[in-house]
Amino acid sequence: MIVNDSNQRRRVVLVLFCVCFVLEAALGPNIAVAGGRIDFMLIFAGCVALSFGGTYGVLCSFGAGLLFDLMTSGPVGAMAFLLTLSSFFLGAEDRDRLADDMAGACRLFFVSAAAVELAYQLCLALTSQQGSFVDVVFLRWLPSTLLDCVVFLPFVFLLSRTGSSGPQLGKKKSGRTRKGSYRIKGL
Prior knowledge:
Layout: H1 6-26, E1 32-33, E2 36-37, H2 40-51, H3 54-71, H4 78-90, H5 97-100, H6 102-126, H7 133-162
Antiparallel strand pairs: 1-2
């Protein structure tokens, strides 16, 4: 019998959101390394998109981006749009990429985080909230992207250990096949 615990997904996302929200509100504005700041809502959106994907990941990312926009002095809706777009591409296959290939999922997030941070910093520059191009690229975008990528790693490691999907038919929780069951490719 296959049991699908849909509440497990909600619990994981709710706990992850609460942790990222508290860190974004408490530590986000106060920790700056070389002018770059950690975007915990981007990390939340990336984790949800890579773990669950699909419509669920896109909606969670939109909410996180809107909350980020309301907590900062940037243009409202910019980060919501960027996180929604990023989450759409990260979660396009609607599967748990963290369980399948964690290194590949991390590479996808790193590229996505770099694109989102660059677009957001350019958006801030267009609204006259940033200085020159050198200030945008070298003093804001590059440090912010590096901080996001470094802080993403503990989150993704812990999230991959929570087991966002339960054991599959014929497998124990350890991933081994039960005695007497057969592996049939394609099923």
